[in-house]
Amino acid sequence: MGKCHQCIIRHFNSFKSLTTEELTCISDSKTEMNFKKGQVVFTEGSTINGVFCVKSGKCKLSKLNSNGKEQIVRFVKGGDVLGYRSVIVNEPVTLTVTALDNMNACFIPKADIFDALEKNPKFMMDMMKTACTDLKDANMTLSKMAQKNVRERLADTLLFLQETFDVTEDGYIDVQLSREEISSIIGTATESAIRLLSEFKKEKLINLKGKNIQIVDAQKLRNISEGF
Can you tell me whether residue 209 is helix, strand or coil? Predict the structure, then answer.
């Protein structure tokens, strides 16, 4: 099992503020976990006793709406931390986390998190900054859902996915999502998402190959997302 102070991933999250001694304590108590594509990490309403530091892979964070339909609200990739808000406020998690591909993460018990928060003010401040950033992103998502039409939301989502996950060697966005998942992100019926993707392809804005999506004309997508 790798040592936390040697892990490059920690430089991408709040754990960069921890001392070598604190990281050594975490290394001694952490558990390295592997999740297969489609496997649930934790479920909305459950209680978790620690946080997950994602080392590699991707996952989606979703919530069931009043109709029982999944609403994807956020994505997580290597370097991100899962479950910290629920652990800090001692409340059940409010989202379900599902691996989008094979994912590797370290589970860190909450006792170690609390100990570090109490002893290291910079770590506490960085955790607060992370929470504020997540809240800002959530507010922006709600604003876009309210102010943009479905076509604009799809264009905005495709650009966001490419910015978040980058592209593969052959130019496709480096995450595979089903049409149902795409419809969940933009808040529309699956049939509407399929139709809009076909329209974008006909307009030569994107290429489609199964679940793979390639952005061909980012500027035109950006114009659409901004209502032009």
Answer: strand
Here the tokens at position 91 are 């409340």
Residue-by-residue DSSP string for 159-174? HHHHHHH-B-TTS-BS
| pLDDT tens for each residue of 62-73 | 988 877 788 898
pTM of the complete model beyond 0.85: no
The CA distance from 107 to 127, in Å, is 17
175 token code pair: 């995450």
Measured CA to CA, the distance from residue 28 to residue 2 in angstroms comes to 10
**Residue range 5-42, pLDDT digits in tens:** 455 445 446 777 888 888 888 888 889 999 999 999 99
210 three-class SS: coil
Count other C-beta atoms under 10 Å from residue 121's C-beta. 10
